[in-house]
Design brief:
By secondary structure, this protein is mainly alpha-helical. It has one domain. About 85% of the residues lie in helices and about 0% in strands. It contains three helices and no strands. Helix 1 packs parallel to helix 3 and helix 2 packs antiparallel against helix 3. The N terminus is likely disordered. This is Transcriptional regulator. It comes from Rhodopirellula islandica.
């Protein structure tokens, strides 16, 4: 195995999509001169795939946090409205309004 191909297989792990793992195995089976020509492109594809997966995970975490924050804000808004209505009712009972 050439140095380039060895580096590519080192970058491929369990998080790499199965299709890319299969492609890497097929490229590793090629003769050295073809493998050396295709290996850099495979490395870029694996790198892009890994980066996209990380970005997707960050976006999903951010959305989860946003949903949680929205729930807290809605709860706070409802509590504030209940308090407002209670104070308004108290003022109406006292005849101040």
């Amino acid at each position: 195995m050439t140095k380039i191909a060895a580096n590519n297989t080192a970058k491929i792990n369990d998080e790499t999509p199965v299709e890319l793992q299969e492609m890497a195995a097929a490229i590793d089976a090629l003769p050295a001169r073809y493998r050396d020509a295709v290996a850099p492109a495979l490395a870029r594809v694996v790198e892009c795939s890994t980066r996209r997966r990380r970005i997707l995970n960050l976006v999903q975490e951010a959305l989860s946090q946003l949903r949680l924050d929205m729930k807290y804000l809605i709860f706070d808004l409802e509590a504030t409205r209940r308090e407002r209505d209670q104070y308004k009712e108290m003022l109406e009972q006292d005849g101040s309004l």
